[in-house]
Amino acid sequence: MSSCIASVEAIKFYRGIASSGMKVHISIGFDTIMAECQFLRSEGDEYEQLVRLEPPCLCWLIFDRAIYTRSCAFYIASKLDHQGRGCRFLFHGQFGDSLKERKIRRFIRRQRIGRVERVENVRSIVCNSLFKKETKISAFEGLPVILNTGETGKIVGAFGKGGKVRVEMTTLLLESTVEKIAADETVEVSMYLKKYLGEKKIEGYLPSGLP
């Protein structure tokens, strides 16, 4: 086994931060080996990349050398080279199945927030501050957005050359929203993105539980 996705249980006595990308000692049976750890959250057949250990999560372990073991084997991760006081054990868990390739599909979440500048009609608005003027807007066309008043829409293209965009509403604007914009009150527009690591690909999504 050269890498695997493992379950993770944090050890509460460890006072440091277990961060993605750090090297740890993995003890399994009578063997101890160095491994890189990447903390992930499963989402179907892909994974959200986490900055640090944030339960509940999984850990992608990439070993410095192949080891002979089996899935479901118990392991403990530690920093045996830690100097000073405090617990050296970070987390523990069980190995999953061995990965045939040292590659999995991972993404990081990003959010952009802008403001509705004007209403063209109940199906179309113009927004600013979502992008910088040098941003290639065409890469984001068709991606969903949501207003803080609850209505949803999608980017249809650039509006001028200053980073503004036109949004086509997929739900009609509420009368109360139109009144807020007309009164120059702030109505925010948010875009939620998945940026895939090692790929030139960005996907948009709308989180569940939003108004």
TrEMBL record:
Domain Selenocysteine-specific elongation factor C-terminal RIFT: from-to ranges: 103-185
Family matches, as CDD domains: eSelB_III
Chain ranges of the Selenocysteine-specific elongation factor 3rd domain: 5-48
A Pfam family reported for this protein in Swiss-Prot or TrEMBL: eEFSec_4th
InterPro entries tied to this protein: eEFSec_C, eEFSec_III
Domain of life: Eukaryota
Protein name listed in UniProt: KOW domain-containing protein
Source taxonomy: Eukaryota, Metazoa, Ecdysozoa, Nematoda, Chromadorea
